[in-house]
Amino acid sequence: MSRIGVFVCQCGNNIESTVDTGQVASDMKEMPGVVFSCTYKFMCSSPGQEMVRQAIKDKRLDGIVVSACSPHMHEKTFRKASESAGLNPYKCEIVNIREQCSWVHHDTTKKIGTRKSNDLTRMIIERLKKNKPLKKINIPVNKKALVIGGGIAGIQAALDIADGGREVILVEREPSIGGNMARLSETFPTMDCSQCILTPKMVEAELHDKIKILTYSEVEKLDGYIGNFTVTIKKKAKYVDESTCTGCGECMEKCPFKADSEFELGLNKRKVIYTPFPQAVPNIPVIDAPNCVMLTKGKCGICAKVCGPGSIDFEQKDEFIEEQVGAVVVATGYDLMPNERFGEYGYGKIKDVVSGMQFERLASSSGPTGGQIFRPSDGKVPEQIVFLQCIGSRDEAKGVSYCSKICCMYTAKHTMLYKHKVHDGQAYVFYMDIRAGGKRYEEFTRRAQEQEDAMYLRGRVARIYERDGKVVVQGADTLSGTQVVIEADMVVLATALVSRPGADSLAQKLGIGYDKYKFYNEYHPKLKPVETVTAGIFLSGACVGPMDIPESVSMGSASASKVLALFSSDEMAREPIVAAVNKQRCNACWDCVVACPYTAIEKEEVKDRQGNVIGWNANVNEGVCQGCGVCVAACRSKVVDLAGYTDEQVFAAINAF
Amino acid sequence: MKIPYYPGCTLNTTAKGFDLSARESAQTLGFEMEELEQWNCCGACFPLSPGNVMALAAPAKVLTNARKEGESVTTLCSVCYNVLKRTNVALNEDKARLAAVNDFIEEDYDGSLKVVHMLEVLRDTIGFDKVKEAVMRPLGKLKVGAYYGCMLLRPFKDVGIDRHEGPTIIEDLLTAMGCEAIDFPDKIECCGAHLTMGREDVVEKLSGNVIASAVNRGAEVIVTSCPLCQYNLEKSQESIMETNAGHKEVPIIYFTQLLGLSLGQTDEMAGLDGNKFDIRPLLKERGV
Amino acid sequence: MEAELREKAKELLGSGEIGVVIGFGWNKRKTRTTPVFITKAEDTDKLVFNAYCVNNLSVYLTRKYPDVKAMGKAAIVAKGCDIKNLAVMIAEGQFKRDDTYIIGMTCSGVGYKQELIEANGGELKPEIMPVKCHNCDVRNPHISDAVIGETTDFTPPEEPVGMVFDKIKQIEAMDAKGRFGFWEEHFSRCIKCYACRQVCSLCYCDRCITDKNTPQWIDSSAHARGNFSWNLVRAMHLTGRCTFCGECERACPVNIPLNVINKKMAVVMEDAFDHRSGYDPEVHPPMIVFDIENDKEEFIK
Amino acid sequence: MSEELKKVATGFEPKIMAFVCNWCTYAGADLAGTSRMEYKDNVRIIKLPCTGRIDPLFIIKAFENGADGVLVSGCHPGDCHYTTGNYHARRRWRAFKNLMDFTGIDETRLQFSWVSASEALKWVDLINKVTTQVKAAGPFIEYQGLSEKYDDGLGELPAETEGESKEC
Amino acid sequence: MKMNINKDEIQSYAIEQLERISGEATKNCYQCGNCTGGCPVSYEMDIAPSKIIRMLQIGKIEAVKAANTMWLCVGCLQCHSRCPKSVSVASVLDALRQATFRSGADHIDVKEIPVSFLKNTPQQAIVCGFRKFVS
Amino acid sequence: MIKTLFKKDALAGLIEAVRKDGGEFVAPTLVARQASYKAVTDAAAIETDYIVPQNSFKEVLFPQSEAIATFKEAGTNMAGVEVNAKDTVVFGSRPCDAASVASLRSVFTWDFVDEFYTTREDKAVVISIACTKGDSSCFCTSVGLAPDATEGSDVLLRETEDGDFSAEAVTDKGKTFVKKHKDVFTTCKAAKEIAIFEPVKLDKVDLDKVGESLADTTHYDNDKMWGDIARKCIGCGACTYSCPTCHCFDIVDEGSFFEGERRKNWDACQFDFFTLHASGHNPRDTQYKRWRNRFMCKFKIYPGKFKTKGCVGCGRCVRVCPVRLDITEVMEELS
Lengths: 657, 288, 301, 168, 135, 335
Prior knowledge:
The complex is a heterohexamer of chains A (657), B (288), C (301), D (168), E (135) and F (335).
Chain A (H helix, E strand, L loop, with lengths): L3 E6 L11 H9 L4 E7 L5 H13 L4 E6 L2 H14 L7 E5 L1 H5 L8 H19 L7 E4 L3 E5 L3 H12 L3 E5 L14 E2 L4 E2 H14 L3 E4 L2 E9 L2 E8 L14 H5 L3 E3 L8 E3 L1 E2 L11 E2 L5 H5 L4 H5 L12 E7 L1 E4 L3 E3 L16 E3 H8 L20 E8 L15 H15 L4 E6 L9 H10 L4 E4 L2 E7 L2 E8 L4 E7 L1 E6 L1 E3 L3 H8 L26 E3 L9 H18 L4 E4 L4 E3 L9 H5 L5 E7 L5 E8 L9 H5 L5 E3 L4 H9 L2
Parallel strand pairs in A: 1-2, 1-3, 3-4, 6-7, 6-18, 7-10, 18-29, 20-27, 21-22, 21-27, 22-23
Antiparallel strand pairs in A: 5-30, 8-9, 11-12, 12-17, 13-14, 15-16, 19-28, 24-25, 25-26, 31-34, 32-33
Helix pairs in contact in A: 1-5, 2-3, 5-18, 6-7, 6-15, 11-12, 12-13
Chain E lengths: L1 E3 L2 H4 L2 H10 L11 H5 L10 H9 L3 H6 L2 H4 L5 H5 L6 H14 L12 H6 L2 H11 L2
Helix pairs in contact in E: 2-8
Chain F lengths: L2 E4 L4 H10 L3 E8 L2 E6 L18 H4 L3 E8 L3 E5 L7 E6 L1 H15 L5 H8 L1 E6 L25 E5 L5 E5 L2 H9 L4 E2 L20 H9 L1 H4 L2 H8 L7 H5 L6 E7 L3 E8 L20 H20 L9 H5 L6 H8 L1
Parallel strand pairs in F: 2-6, 6-7, 7-8
Antiparallel strand pairs in F: 1-9, 1-10, 2-3, 4-5, 4-12, 8-9, 11-12
Helix pairs in contact in F: 3-4, 6-10, 8-10
C-alpha cells in the first residue's frame, strides 16, 4: 500500500473562501493509501514547504499530492522540496484547486468548491499511485555550434559564440556573408551607413580562428539531438579554388559575359564570375554555372587564362561535409514579397515602381547609381515620389495578416534620404498606421514629417498606372476623407517581409515548427523567444518574423548565450518526460516512427548472439524526444508509453473520476 | 497697503457690482485697490497669431502706463487679466516684438510689470487663512459652483493662475468663506464668449451646458470672475427658464460679491442689484 | 487453373528459392477447403483453388506464426482481396515486398455458404457471393509476382451494392439512441472468442491491448460494457487499414455484422482523407499522417 | 425507480470529463481562473502533454466510468507546443467521432474544441455550453446501463433481436 | 470628392504665409483629433479643427477658407492647451481670419448690429466681437 | 421405463408454470439467424428447426462471466457474492450437450467444490430432444454417444410424427419434474416416433487408440506431426467457447476506483497467453502446441482423470473453425 501525503493549501483566502480545505484534507485522509493530510495557509511559503519536507520524513511518505494552485505555478517548487526531503520529485503531484476551482466557482457556501477539490484530488491521488520515480536524463554535449545564415543575426551569434571560446560553423547560402543588411544604404534611426557598421563585423567573423565560414553552402540534413547533432552541409561548387584564390579580381575584370545582379535586385548587371559586392566575405568569386559559357558550352575559359594562381577549376563538384555539433542557431532571415503579386500596382511591370530594397540600392552610395536617386525608366530625378506602406502586410486577402514591422521606419528613412538628395522634391507616404515602437523611432518618423517635409497620407493606394511619363497614384486620404490622386515620378513599395523560400523544408529537416507564413515558431513567444521546440536549436533574426537590425542582433546574442550556457558543462540534464518502447512487444509497424514530430524514434535492428538481424524494434532517442506522446496514442498495441503520463496513470485518474 | 488696479471697460459699465464688491472687500481685508490713473481698453482679446502685432498695441499701452504707476497691476476681469498677462509674456519673449510695439505706441516699456489677478492677491498676498478669519457672516450651507471659464486658465504656460485642468483656487476661496464649494465637470468649459454677437444659439448651448453641469452636482449659486461669462450664463439661463419651467434659478454672481457678503457687507456694497437673479432669497432661506 | 497453380508451386519449391507455399487444399472429406502449407514439390497436387477458398491466407505471414516463418521464404496463394492485406502489411513494415512471393489468383468470387454452392452443383451464383465480390475491383491481382488464371473483365458497379451498404444507410438514418441500441444488441452477443482478431492479418500485434492488464485497457469480461469497448477499439484500430476482406465477420460465431462498421469507417477514410487501403504498399495508413491544409475540422468548435 | 428517474428526481448534474493539453487549453483554463471568471462546475480535467497523446480509449474509459459527456480540447492548429501533435489529434478525432456517431454516441456527448492559452473566455463559454447541452441530453443511461445488462448467464432475449446473416 | 495632391499646393505661398502669421507648423500635427474632441463648438463647424490642419497639410487652403470654422472659434484654447504636439488650431484660425481681413473681407456688417445689443451686452463682448469679425 | 406424452401445445403452459415458480426457461431460439440457447418467455419464440444450437447450454451452469465478489474504493471492502441461481429448465437440449454435464461436474467438484457451478446444476432440469437430423460435422456415435442417448438428460423427448414428443424421465430429478407437471406430461397414447438421425460413424476412430497414442510420448512430442496438423490454427477461442465441455476460466478484477467486481470469466486454452507464466516463460509457445493441448485435454486427460467424456461429438468446433481445422480428422489420424 502506498504511503501518500495530501497537502491542501488555503492560499490565504484565495482557495479557502470557496473550498473547505479542512474538509478536503479529512476526506482525502480516508482514501486508501493516504496516511497523512493537512492544510496550511500558504503551502508554497518556506514554512509550508518545510511542513511538506517534514511530513515526507516523519511519515515516510512515498508520494505527495499538493492541492493548491496550477502546476504551472508551483509544480517545480514542490518537486524541489520533495527532492530535498529524499522523495523522488516525480512522486509529487499538484492538484489545481485554485485556478480551475476556487477562482472559477464563486459559491461561498463552499459546497461546489469542496466537492470539486475532492474529486480532483482523488483523481490525482490515484494517478500518483501509478507514478514511477523518474531520473533526469543526462546527455553529453558536443561543444561546437552550427549557425545557419550569415546575415547580421547569424554573424552576431557566430561572433558571440566564438568569443565565448567555442567553435562555430557559419553556413551561408550566398557567395558572401552579409545578408540583407549588406544591401542597405543607411540605417534608421541613426542614419549611419549600413556597410560601414556591418563590414567590420564580417571581417571579424572571417578572421576569427574559432569561426569556419562556409559560403555558397546549404544544410542538407540534420540528425541527432541536443548536444549531439550531425549536420550534412552541401557546399556548392564555386569553380574557384578557395585555398589559392587571392581575390585579385582579375577574372571578374576579364569575364566577357554578364548576368543580372542578384545583389542589386536586377537594377544592375554583374559578371558571370563574380563576387556579389565589393566587400564580399570571403572575397572569393564564384562562377554562375548556368550562365557560364565554359561550363555550359565548353567555350571561353578566359577567367582561367587570366588567373595568376590558377585557381579556376571547371571540374569542381558539389561537396558534402559532415560535422558534429552540439547546438544549432537558425538565422536564415527574410525575403520580400515580390512586386509581381500586386496587380493593382502594375504586377511589377511599371519600371518606376520599385521595392523598398531596390530603393535602398538606389540610395546606396555603393549602389548602381552611386547613391543618386534616378528613376529606373529614364534616369530622371523624381520630383515627386510616393512611398506605399503595408504593401502585402496586414493584407489578409494577400495572405499576410501580420505587420512587417520595419516598413514604417525604413520608409521614413527613405523619405529623408530622398529629401537629402532631391532637395526640392516632394515625398508622399501612404500609410495605415505608423508603427514606430522603438527607441528613438517615433521621433524619427515625426522628423521625417516635420523637418524633412514628407507628406503622410493615411490610407491605402488603390491603383497605380502610367500616364504621360508619370506614375499616377490613386488612393485615399482618410484623414480628410477624400480620394486623392498624385502624379508621381516614382513609387516605392514597402512590400511585406516574408519568409525565405524553402524555409519550410529547412524546418522539416531541422524538426522545428513554423507558422502558416513559414516563419519559425519560438518555443514560447514571450518567455522562450529564441528557443525552438527542438532542444538545442535556437532562432535568431527575421526567420522568426519581421524584425529590425537591433532586434536581430539581440536575438543573435541571445541565441549565442543560450548556446554558451548549453556548452558550459559536459553533460546536460533533461526532464525525463520521454517515451519508451517495450521492445519485447514492438510490432515494428513504424506508426510511431512516422507520427513522431521530432523524428525521435528510429528503427532499430534486433540481433541474435551471432549478430544476425532477426527483427526490428522502434527505439526512442531520449535526447530528441520532447514528450508529446503522439507515438503513444499512435501505437495500437501500446508498446510505447510516456513516462510521467503513462496509460496506467491516466487510467487511474479516469477510474477515480 | 495699496494695490494698483485696472478695472477695464466692463467693470465701469455692466459689471459695476464686480468692481464695487471687490473694492469694499479689499477695504475689509485691509488693503486698497487703487485704480490706475491712466488706462485704456485692453482690446478684450489677445491676438492668437503672433504675426498680428497691431493688436498688442492697446494692452501694451495699458502695461506701459501701469508700469509708470507701480510694479504690478491687479485685474478683476478674467479677460483683462488674460490679455494683459499674455501681452506681457509675449513682449518679454520676443524683444523684437517689444521694440516694434514700443515704436508704435511711442513708449519705452521694458516688460517688467507684474500682472496679477485679484484671486492671486487674495491667495498669495492676503492669504485665504486671513480671509477665513475675516469672515463675519458665514454663508452657511450655501452650495456654490466655481466657474472659471477659459481666460483665467489658458494657455497655462502664459497665464497659469492655477492648475489648468483642475483648478481649485476659487473653491479654496469659497471654502475659506465658509461655503460648500461644488466641483463640476464643465467648470473650465467655454461659455460661448463673443459669439453672443450673432450666434446666441451657440452661447445658449454652451452656457446652458455649464449651468446644467453645475446644477447637476448640486450648485445653488455659480460664481465667476468674468463679466462676459456672467452675462452669458445669466442670459442663457433666461432662455432655459423659458423652455424648462422646472428649472430653479441659479444666481450667477461675481466671486467678490459673495466674498463681500461673507465679510459682512451690505447688499448695496456687494452690488447685488446688478444681477438678474437675486441671491438674497436664497440667503434668506438659509437664514444668513 | 489448378494445374497452372500446382505447376507454379512445383517450380517455386523446386528452385529452392521458396520454402513454403501457403495455399488451399481439400479437407479429408473434400467438403471444405482449408489452409495448407506445402513444403515439398511432390505435395503440390494438394493445392486447389475454387469458390470454396474463402480464407485470407495473409494472416499466416504475420509475426504470430514464427513456425511458418521458419519454413523459409513463403509463396502465398492470394486473391486480389487478400493482396490488399499484403499491401497494408508491407506499408506497415511487417515484411518487405521481396520477402514474399505472391501467387496472384484471378478470381471470379467466392461463396461462404458451402452447402449453397453444393446445392447449385458446385456453381457459384451471384446470390451466394459476399458483398466484397460483387464490388471487387481486384479480380485481377494488382500486386503479384505471378498471376494464375485467365484475366477477367469484370467491372464493379459504380455505386457499391450489397447488404452492408444498405445497412450503413439504414443505421445512419436512425437517431443516436437507435444506433446505440443496434450496436448494443449486436455487441452484447459477443463472446470475446477473438476469432475476428485472430483471423485478421492486420491484427498482427504481438500482444493485443485486450490482453494487457497494467492497465486493463478493456474489460476482459464478455459483458456488454467490455464487449462494446472491445468492438469500438477493434474498429478504430482497423480504421484506415481494413481492406474489407470480410474475414472477421465470417469467423464470428455469433454473427456480429462487423463488415458494416468496418466498411463505414473505410467510407469515412475515403471521404475525409481520400484513402483506400490495400492498393499501394508505399502509402502509409492515414491515421498516423496528417494534412495541415486539407484536414477538415468543422467538428472542432 | 429507474436510474434515469432517480437522477432526474434528484436534479441531474452531468459528469463531464475533459481531456486537455497542458500548453494551450490547460493554460487557458488557468487564465479563466486568474481572471476570476465563473463557469459551471461539472467538468473534471485530465491534463495531458498534448492532444496527440489522447488515445480514443481514454474517451471510452471515461464513458465506462460514468461520464455523461466528454470534452477534448487542445491548441489551435499551428499553435501546438510540439508543432504537429494537434494535427495528428485532429485526424484521429475525425475518425473516432465518426465511429462514435455511427455507434450511437450522440455528438453532444463527445465534443472537441481548440482553446488557446489566451482564450479564457472561450473556455468559459465552452464549459457552460457543453454542460448545458449534456444536461439537456440527460444522463448517459445507455452507456452506463451497459455494465448492468447481459450479466451472469443467459439473460432474457432482448425484444427486437433481429438476426444478421453473414454477408450475403 | 476627389483631389489631386501635388507639390505646388503643398509648398504654396499661401500656406507658407499662413504658417508665418500663425506661427504654427501644420505638419507637426499628427492628426490625433484631440482638438476636435475638446472644441466646444466643433459640432457647428463645417470642417472640424483637426481636419482644418489636415487640409492645410495637403495644401487645400481654399477649402479651409470657404469653411465657417474660423468664424466659430471662440479662442477658448482648449485645443491648444491639450494638443500633444502643441499645435494651436486657434492660432491657425486666427491667422486665417487675419488673412481674410487683409484681403479686405469682413465677416459681419457692423451697421447691422442692433443697438439694443450694443446697449445690453458687456463691452468686452462687443470689443472682442469686433476684433474677431471685422478688419 | 415410464413413457409419457408431451404435447407440443403444452409448452406454453410449462413455460408459464416454471416461470410462475420463479424459475427460468431456457430453450433454443433464433438469435442472429442461429438457434441459440436463451431464456425465453414465449413458446412461439422456441426454435425447433436446428441441428445443435450455436452455443452450448453450459452457459446456464457456468456463465461466460459472473461476479464472485465485490469491492469498494480501490480494492478495499471485499465482499463475496451469493450464488444467484434460479430453478432452470433447459428445454430442447441435444443429447450430446446433455452429456457434457457430467464432464463439467467432474471438473468443478474434483477437489474444490465450486458452488457457483453446483448450485446452478442442482437447480437445473435438462429436457433433451433426441436428434432427428444432423449434418456431416456430427460425430456423437464416434465418441460413444448416440443421438438419443440419455446421459446427462433428466428428461429425454423423442419427436412423434404428429409433432408431439414422447417423454422419458431419466433421472430422479426428471421424474420429480414430470410428476410435478403432470398436466403437461400426459399418459395418453403417443403417435409413432420419428426415426432417429444416424450420424456417420467414423470407422477409423477408436477412442482407446487415440488415448494410447497420446500417452505415447513420441506422439506427444512429435512437433512436426502436431505442426502439420495444427499449423493453420489461428488461435481464436471459437471452438472452446462453443464447446460444451470446455470449462477453463480466468479470474479478473474490474471496475472503477469506487466499486468493482471480481469476475470469473471463460478463458480459452487457444489464447496465446493462456499459459504465460509470470516469469515470461510460455510452455505452449506456438499455436499448434496449444491446439495439441486442447486435443489432449479432451481425449486423454478427461477420460484418464475423471473417467468422463472430454468430447461429446456435437461438432460445433468443426462448424465454427474459421480455418476448418477438423478434430475428427485428427482423431482418425491418431487411431
